[in-house]
Amino acid sequence: MAFTPKTKEFKSTAGNDYTFQNVTNSKQAEIVDEGTGLQGKVLNSKMMPLMLENIVVVPNGLTMDDFDTWEELEEVTTAAFSFLRTGQ
User: Which residue from 61, 60, 32, 59 is spatially nearest to 47, judged by alpha carbons?
Assistant: First the structure.
């Protein structure tokens, strides 16, 4: 069975549109390993850029500093992480 990427449209509370796309299981494992600390706690400074680079595909090339507020950055990256883990 071959991997077929799934996408999801997401609209933030601020009204901005994003598209998420999942990755292969091996890439997901790399992301989770890189974005979490020794106790399994998510490290925002590592996980948020990984979500923006690998999961948020539209708009492409976002960085943490492209967001006007922490609230929207956190909302989008949390939703992207949830999509990464569940595909929904």
Answer: 32
d(CA 59, CA 56): 7
Distance CA 22, CA 67 (A): 22
| CA Rg value for the chain | 13
* Mean per-residue pLDDT over the chain, rounded: 96
How many Cβ atoms from other residues are within 10 Å of residue 68's Cβ?
10
Task: Give how many domains the chain has, as a whole number.
Answer: 1
Domain that holds residue 41: 7-86
Return the sign of the alpha-carbon dihedral for residues 69, 75, 76, 80.
Answer: positive
The model carries a pTM of 0.94
